[in-house]
Amino acid sequence: MRIAFRADASDRIGTGHVIRCLTLARALKRRGAECRLLQRLHQGHLASMVTEHGFQSIELPASPPADQPVGDEDYTAWLGVSQTEDASQCQEHMDGMHADWLVVDHYGLGAEWEGTMRDQVGKILVIDDLANRPHDCEILVDQNDYQEGPQRYHRLVPESARVLAGSRYALLSERYRQNRPDCPLTHHRIRHVLVYYGGVDPTNETARALRVLSTRKFQELQVEVVMGVNNPHRDEIERLVSKRPNTRLLGQQNDLVDRMLAADLALGAGGTTTWERC
User: Fold this and answer.
1) Where are the beta strands (DSSP E) in 132-275?
2) Over the stretch 189-217, which tens digit does the pLDDT of each residue have?
């Protein structure tokens, strides 16, 4: 089975979309699937990470700089080009390959793009959590827990589409399931704190947390800081870590299982690591 993924990472988008696609790709590869990932070469892309994990990275050209400032939730601007142009470039770079499945994880893509890709793919799986646009797909996965469940996507997907909604469908590395029994609930005194605010952390919550943890009240705590691959505040974080005793700084990790097992308390962002912490 041949499976194509379409997801982007950048300093604005973050890394979570590509990371969770890689998690799914690794699981599919273990079952014999051939997986490749199409991504645009935005500033902060993860093409090298994709190849390091043993998958082909099909790289779409970087988009021209935006003429106007782009808001954090202007999702159509995240794509960098129109949906029509993106689909055309994807088809060109796939070079005639027919994928059995196309997995799309991108807030800037919807039914317009998916419908255009139909000629080159068998079926489409969408990963989404906004429920703010129509999709043309066979399966939609939303790993968030909402009271309305699958009904959240009523009229946004075809009637025949299957909606997999809720945290039971969270795209997590197998190691989290395997090691969960080793992490019992505890109520003892907090001694070890893990700090990780995602692959980018644009508002520098890492430094904010370190400044609080450096006050006298918390200086006895052991602190482990993981800095994401696209974090733009490296110099400030390194300076804060060097000034605080009992503090260890780590770079991007393949997963955070061992770090989380060692921690009594985790400070982090509200992205993919939410389910990892749970």
Assistant:
1) 139-142, 162-165, 192-196, 222-226, 247-250, 265-268
2) 899 999 999 989 999 999 999 999 999 99
